[in-house]
Amino acid sequence: MSVSRNKKISEEIKKIVSHIMMFEIKDPRVSKLASVTHVDVTNDLRFATIYISVFDPNHNMETHIDGLNSAKGFIRKEIGKKLKLHYTPEPIFKQDHSVEHGMHINEILGSLDIKHDEPEVDVDAESSEDTVDEEE
């Protein structure tokens, strides 16, 4: 199977699951401030690993994943309706740590004391070169 087809299917699953999380799941464990960051589909289209990130600091990620796992059958059925594939991929929900990792890297970079000043120019050195030229 071509990589571009896999990529297109992954993007479509991402759109479908994002829409389902926002508008169709009524479970209070599933936060409206969650998003699908990316989807990895196996080459045989049997499984789709869906990475989720929640932007609500008061929301527990484990309960969000539990809510999505309880709606897994509904989500798979909706994916199957909209994609019309021979096999409907089994969704596997995982927490995406890339946002937290990026924030951690940003904190580390912010804590460094790096000065971005222009290099200092020695004014005395420039004026002595001028006087040497004038003497000749």
TrEMBL record:
<dbReference type="InterPro" id="IPR023799">
    <property type="entry name" value="RbfA_dom_sf"/>
</dbReference>
<protein>
    <recommendedName>
        <fullName>Ribosome-binding factor A</fullName>
    </recommendedName>
</protein>
<comment type="function">
    <text>One of several proteins that assist in the late maturation steps of the functional core of the 30S ribosomal subunit. Associates with free 30S ribosomal subunits (but not with 30S subunits that are part of 70S ribosomes or polysomes). Required for efficient processing of 16S rRNA. May interact with the 5'-terminal helix region of 16S rRNA.</text>
</comment>
<keyword id="KW-0963">Cytoplasm</keyword>
<dbReference type="Pfam" id="PF02033">
    <property type="entry name" value="RBFA"/>
</dbReference>
<comment type="similarity">
    <text>Belongs to the RbfA family.</text>
</comment>
<dbReference type="InterPro" id="IPR015946">
    <property type="entry name" value="KH_dom-like_a/b"/>
</dbReference>
<keyword id="KW-0690">Ribosome biogenesis</keyword>
<feature type="region of interest" description="Disordered">
    <location>
        <begin position="116"/>
        <end position="136"/>
    </location>
</feature>
<feature type="compositionally biased region" description="Acidic residues">
    <location>
        <begin position="119"/>
        <end position="136"/>
    </location>
</feature>
<comment type="subunit">
    <text>Monomer. Binds 30S ribosomal subunits, but not 50S ribosomal subunits or 70S ribosomes.</text>
</comment>
<dbReference type="InterPro" id="IPR000238">
    <property type="entry name" value="RbfA"/>
</dbReference>
